[in-house]
Amino acid sequence: MTVIPLFHVLILSTLLFAIGFIGVVARKNTLFILMSLEIMLNAVGVAFIGAGSVWQQADGQVMFLLILTLAAAEVAVGLALLIRMQKKYRSLDIDLLNQMKG
Amino acid sequence: MMSIASNSQPLLTMTMASAILPQLIIAFGITLALLLVAWKRSQRTIALFTFLTLFIALLANVSLQAMPATQVTQLLKVDGYSTFAFSLILISALVALRMSHSFLKAHVEVHDEYYLLLLLLVLGAGVLVASDHFASLFLGFELLSISLVGLVGYHRESNYSVESAFKYLVLSATASSFMLLGIAFIYSVTGDLSFNATIPTAIYHQQGLGLFFQLGLLLFVSGIAFKLSIAPFHFWTPDVYQGAPTPITMLMATISKVAMFVVLLKCIIAQRYLLLENFQLFLTSFAVISMLLGNVMALQQQNLKRLLAYSSIAHMGYLLIVIIVTSAQSLAFTWQSALFYLAAYTVANLSIFIIIALIQQQNTSSLYQEDISLTDLQGLFWRAPSYALLMILGLLSLAGIPLTMGFIGKFYILSQATIAHAWWLIATLIIGSAIGLAYYLPMIFKIFADTPSDTLCDTQKMNGKVKALGGDIIEQVLVYSFITFGLVFGVLPEVINQLIAS
Amino acid sequence: MTLSLIMLALLITGALAWRAERYWQGSAKWLALMSLALLAITFAGFVINYAISHNNDFAQLQVLSRINWIKTFNIQYSIALDQLSIVLIALTWLLAIICVLVSWREIKRHVGFYYFNLLLTIAGIIGVFVAVDMFLFFFFWEVMLLPMTAIIAIWGHEKRYFAALKFFIFTQVSSLLMLVAIIATGYFHLLQTGQLSFYYLDWLLLDIPLEISQYLMLGFFIAFAVKLPSVPVHSWLPDAHTQAPTAGSVLLAGVLLKTGAYGLIRFVIFLFPQASVQFAPIAATLAVVSIVYGAKMAFAQQDFKRLVAYSSISHMGFVMLALFAFNSMAYQGAIVTMVAHGLSSAALFAMAGMIYQRIHSRDLADMGGFWQSAPRMGGFALAFAGAAFGLPGLANFIGEFLSLVGVFQVMPEFAIIAALGLIGSAIYGMVLFQASFQGAPKREIIDLQSRELIICGSLLLMLLAIGLYPMLLLKFSFGV
Amino acid sequence: MIVLLASLPFYPLVSFLVLIAFGKKLSWQLAAIISVSSIALTVLVSAILLFELSASQNQVLTVNLWHWFDLTNQMGTSEVNMRFYLDGLSAVMISVVTGVGFLIHLFAAIYMKTDANFSRFMAYMNLFIVAMLILVLADNLVLLYLGWEGVGLCSFLLIGFWYQEKSNILAARKAFIVTRIGDTSMVIGLLLLFNTFGELNIKAVTTLAQQGHNLAAGSSPVSSAEQANDIYWIALLLLGGAVGKSAQLPLQTWLPDAMAGPTPVSALIHAATMVTVGVYLIARMHGIFLLVPEVMNYVAWLGASTLLLAGVAALAQTDIKRVLAYSTMSQIGYMMLALGAGAWSAGVFHLMTHAFFKALLFLTAGAVIYALHHQQNLFKMGGLFKKLPFETSLFVVGLICLMALPGTSGFFSKEAIIAQLWSSSTAGPMLWWCAILGALLTSIYSCRLFFLAFLGTARFSENTHPEKSTLLRSALIVLALLSLFGGLIPLDLTLVFSTVIQTPLAQLIEPTWLHTVAIITPFIGILFSWFYFKNYRLSPLKGTKHNIQPSKGKFVVFCRQGLGFDACYNALLVKPYQWLAQINKHDIFDQIIMLNAGYVNLWHDSLIFVQNGSLRWYLAAFGLAIMLLLGVSLL
Q1: Fewer CB atoms inside 10 Å of the end CB: C or N, chain D?
Q2: pTM of the full predicted structure?
Q3: Out of A21, A97, A102, whose CB is closest to D615?
Q4: CATH topology for A29-94?
């Protein structure tokens, strides 16, 4: 089974992370912002798994489990807020949320 | 490279358990609170119960003071500094609990989730303060952030709560993912997630993977900087501080700052990141920008909470100086100045927020306590001298004027910086505090200004008004105790120095 | 020990006055007056019997008490007295009593709190003059500012907030520089003797190499140059004076400027001798420029108090020039000028207050021809303006003449330019007196009442006494 | 006897304090009695002192009041204390001050009785006498300076006595500031003097200077050259002080304006006493001046030029008091000339006689002005000899003394000066000719004044009501007698000026015609003006109504305004100072600092723009910051 060098894993996770980040910044609909957040977290998961496998330790995978729980919690709270935003603003456009400024 | 699972000793010896007793108490408290909610849903009991858990945890924590540093499993390490920080956190939680009573009375249904989130938040902070491993850091960080999101958006009807909660959620999620990516890169290079892992110094300078180490370090620090609202990553602070209800803003300004700073300091000291010269560069640039930016943007702020947000950015800048100038042989002194400054900063913020909450209680215009403006302070001194005195003490302490703890904190930082000959940082600190005076003093003058209706002789006016400002006995006791706190520790800082010096 | 008790007593009586005012009107000012008089007497008694019992003439610093305060930095609460501080504290007591008398009828709002602030400032100032531990000195240096700013901000005139803010920021920023210098010297002491200390007498034994002591001296010098307004950093004084209530400006001009000069003497010239000798030409130019610039600016002012404020800049320029001449004659001249300026500017500000009470304006254009309706006031105003421009026979002349003689021996060209300042002072003295008291009488004002007579009379008596018999003061400053 | 000397200045001081304290309540008579009697007392005491002085062995009386303060320099400490020192010179001065002062007080008491704050006026006059006595009796230069400034202050108060009018205030301010410039140069002189000799006591300074000089002749040239240079500068600076106070050339513009004060003030201060103070200073410090002949030459030339300038200006004046003011200036020029030429006793003698006849002239002019309802313009007077015979005769007496016609006191003193001019080493024939020209000018403008005011037809309509009170007239008569026979008072100041070094160089052979020319010049002047001012003195032919107008010629107007000095001082000094003050009204330094504050606020506004509330912008900023830091760390 060919050994995938750590370097490639890290590059993959950075790229994935960048995609997620651009998704969060560029998207106008809040739902997609939450999704892009998920992508960023999974990218981090990949990095941890890769690092863990290189050092032959379970730490990486344990961290990944923790990240999954975090992602779940975040999405739960995010969706709750999404519903309240829908009820209040009748739309999911993120740019409506800019009353507080200056 | 000791992995978590495989070791022979028992997982939790008696000494370890007693070391993390306060955190354990809070954890059990949360579970008991859940059971209590099932048994008897009444706000008074849940509030009382939370008060009890926090109080007992504080007692346990204070008794821990004399205990030597103990490593509790690989994740946590409890030493004198973390116990002091945790007692600071518990005190702020108790004060916030007291202040949220009036805020919650405004709504009819029972608010047991509020208290649960509060306890979770304190547990998160407890874990952070005692953490010695990236995993515990991550756990504490997330506990803190997620529960704060819930607390920030607590009011359904208020028009700002959704906006601020959402902003806080998205930004804290991005920041935590940045931090995690950073940790991943560091882990991939060093192979060990615990803080005091011995990192071969060669790694710092080799190309290729070493580059990832530096990138990881940058990402990690930027994630933490977000939470500490340091300059380039501070954008969320003013809006979320304004949107959140006052007790929650108080919590954000004190608990999350104290916890994050202590864990950052522990990590940097343990991992000896300061050897990297561009790490030094990052921190210096963070400090300079946040000092100047925080003070300048606070200049003509009318909304008090936004003003305090900006001033907390500036204060985090001052605190960063402590990390930048620390050197191997003066670690104890670094801890002492950092913790003293944090204590002064917390006491000052608590006193100011207490007064803001009390003022907001009596003017029903801002039900959800967002917009408290400078004009509400007009002539406060002649209406309620004790409240005004506490507010002035808090402001003077933030401005760093003698007679208050803030000055001794600034004295610590200045002495550290002069030893390390960091002349540029000192210059920025002086310019920053000069600009800072330009917005602290007008607030104090506003407190002394005459209320437009101050025609009738001020003596009767004063007696009549104080009762109207509301706040029963406990608030008065709180106010007077904080005044004595501020003055006594300002004039005799030796008392706190003993506490820290372990 | 009694000195700390005196300061504490001031604090307590202040609080008492504040409380007493709530129950019966007008009690605060009597309480303040009584306590000031009593404490002045106790201070005098303490000094006299200390001198007799230890039979020394306070030529050297007599340390009175040293109590541990902050152990981590080895900071002690240590206070000491010597001739210089006794003279200045005596001046503070006198001017404090004058302040209470001056604000007898002027302060109507929050009277109790006003006297609390007044007494707190006095306690702060006395603290500054006696503190020997540098941290304690800095502590009193800032504590003195707070009530003073409150007095300007709460009881001042129309633009009071701006003036109070400017006054506070100016002094605060410069004293932060001093704090850095204090800490640096403290740690240099640690470097040299292995023991961190902020004690002034330990510092005197230090020998700091010139290139380091140069910067340390600069840190101290800037803080004191702002307080003693020398030219580039003087612009807070005219604003603070015009907006402060009369007692505020009497205190500000009478004593607060002297803390700057006191600091210069004790913590710049004695502490860093070689550095200050090397810095002397620059300081002398600054002093001379502030003499001439102050006189010129005073001439152009339309506001009575602003004119007197600029004249104090010119007078304090003399003090700085004399101090940086490093000869005993100039030093005595500096002390006499300090005391004389304290008295004469306090008198002029009291006069401004009295005029303001009568015509509710400080603008010289609204005044004119008061001599017709108030001859006694005119007489006193002439005497005080005479003191301001150095009329011989009054105290300022002695101070100026001694310092000029002293400075001439060391740097003749500076003395000559400073002497030109005398012409400038004559011009603004004339403008001040003639614009307000001579000319066609615009309005009738009532003449001096009994209380005001006491104020002006006592001040004039003091000025004449020092003018004609300066040995009163001079035998005190032989110690150098 | 010592107590008498110590108490001399305190009698008028007591009366000053009494008048100031109870001024308003006292009636006119009471105030007059208090003030005049105190001056009478001083006259009595000074008479006794004069008698004591002549009896005492080395003609010197000193008394020490109290120790003032110490002055130290590298040579050691020297005591400066309140000591009075009476010798020949100050005896002359106190006799003039008290004698003439008493007569003027007498005149003023009646002349000013109708004024509202009469007691304040007499108080200032007394204070002036006190300051003058301190100045004259002072034994060290600092006490002298105290008197010096005191006299300056009193002249300011008295010139600006009627302070309701703006012009009086400006005149008073001008007088005070111009004299103050002189005083400052004197202070600098004192500083230099103390620096070189380490001593400010006049006697000690002169002896030290002498030793230094004799020693210098023998010892190494280095110390002497540097010391000589210092002495040169000291003399020059003291001359600056004297010039300021005695209204000599550079600083003389204030004297004509000082006529704004009441006439007794002009008589006392601007004729008899204060203006001669500069002469007294130079006479007192003759020990210093003798060592630097060049400075004495300057003094002489200064005196001569002021003499001529004032003479020319007096010719063009229209106001009677301004003519007398310029004549005072020229007579003091004579005294300065005498001092410059080394004729010390002649100068002081002329000072005394000048005090008598100039006081007489001023007082009679005052009486005339009073009689003509405060009319001072010469071209509005005329033909007064018929209406005011008494005043005219007195005025004639005064004028003949002024013109130094033989027999009068003026003749004795002016001839003494002119005689010693030709052969003195520091003056010379040139200066002698100036003195003669000055005498000629004096006689011309005196005659012009006499013809305009007293001869010719009356150019005024209302009738005169002269003051007939006997006291006033007796005072004038005494003064007239004094000025006529003053010349005979034996004055031997040899002891005071004993240190005069006889000029070793050979006596210039004086041409015999020297004295005759000096005697006949005034008569030539009278003859010339008898014809030139014919129309002033002749009553107009019947029917033709011609009134004489002051000539409007450019040159005459130029002379009238004090030969342009006033204008150029205004343009060169006063205007630029006011302009400089106005443009910098808002304190450049203040604006620089306020600029910074503004700059910070500008920063605030721009940064607030960044905080625009949109979440996506915050995230973008988050990413941007990280990219930036990454870039920096890669470099």
Answers
A1: C
A2: 0.90
A3: A97
A4: Helix Hairpins (1.10.287)
